[in-house]
Amino acid sequence: MSETAIELDVLKTAERWAGEGRSLALATVIETWGSAPRPTGSHLVIDAEGNFEGSVSGGCVEGAVVAEAIDVIEAGAPKILEFGVADETAWRVGLSCGGRIRVYVERVA
């Protein structure tokens, strides 16, 4: 399945969940560096119960993003989250899953 098809599935899920009256947050990859497994623009939709669809990191940080998204749903204020290595020296020492990712999380329903 292409990245575009995956993103459409996530947005369809968000639309369906909103129609069911669920409170939602949408997490969007806004910046990557290094070997981030998902491109900029990738989405994760999360409901207030912690159910989610999509991916912002291929499983690396989804749990942390879901926890932050639940806070965003409750508080209503968006957040920018950053995960990853501190600097480029990680590449010199050969970390297998280096990279950095910034994710914008906002309440959408």
From TrEMBL:
Residues 17-84 form the XdhC- CoxI domain. It holds the Pfam family XdhC_CoxI. This is XdhC family protein. It comes from Jiella sonneratiae.
